[in-house]
DNA sequence: CGGTATCCTTTCGGATACTG
DNA sequence: CAGTATCCGAAAGGATACCG
């Protein structure tokens, strides 16, 4: 495929399962911040392997930042949205608005702030 | 997963390989319109199985419309973006703009209208 | 707590051949 | 031309156990 196409390349990490949901969960945390264990708890069904894999990818893409507090025991890891990550959430909001405009089966989501995405 | 979440459900078809690229190819056609064989030619690497599968999904989602001309032989099939499909292209544009703002390795795409997405 | 390692299953997509 | 049918391999993901 066309490796140089911005849209195509952006689709690459947009499209991976869990990736956007992880960003959304971080967004719901204080200052776009959550711990590994919180993410795990808030994303029912995700396995540790997949979660840690996605976190690495997202960090490599510059969408999140990892901060480890070595002074505490056990070690405490925090993940936080970067400005780029926050900006991507805005696009997800547009996507949600698109869905609410053009898909008719989202009445529940229209009535209230959806508990999951809270956008 | 949460089947009722608008964002989650939207991600479902955003995220499938080729789906957005098919929409982009249609967008590049006259009035958001292209034939099956054109799509196949314009999406190098896609197999007939995958293409026909994606087209069915996109039609079921109301993003494209299929029009068959039975009077001609061989049968001629046209696929066209619906208003919902066109609206989704706008979100893809936002996505592209996000990428161009936050990812530094897209200078070629910045300089010109990318030949592939033409957004 | 925050992961990694291993195994195993399933799904998806690619290749190809064929048909109305 | 516009697909469908069949087969196959790679890769992703789930379950589980374990470690610093």
Protein topology:
2 copies of one chain form a homodimer.
Chain A: H1 6-14, H2 19-28, E1 33-35, H3 36-42, H4 48-60, E2 64-69, E3 76-81, H5 83-102, H6 107-111
Antiparallel strand pairs in A: 1-3, 2-3
Helix pairs in contact in A: 2-5
Chain A binds a DNA duplex (20 and 20 nucleotides) through residues 17, 35-37, 40, 45, 47-53, 68, 72-77.
Helical content of chain A stands at 40-55%
- Order of strands in the sheet with the most strands of chain A? 1-3-2
Looking at how many chains there are and whether they match, the oligomeric state comes to homodimer
CATH topology of chain A: Arc Repressor Mutant, subunit A
The major pleated sheet of chain A works out as:
3 strands, antiparallel
- The total count of strands of chain A amounts to 3
Write up this protein.
The structure is a homodimer of 119-residue chains. By secondary structure, chain A is of the alpha+beta class. The first copy, chain A, has one domain: Arc Repressor Mutant, subunit A (Orthogonal Bundle). Helix content of chain A is 54%, strand content 13%. Chain A has a three-stranded antiparallel sheet. The first copy, chain A, starts with 5 loop residues before the first helix and ends in an 8-residue tail after the last helix. The interface between A and B is large, with 43 and 43 residues.
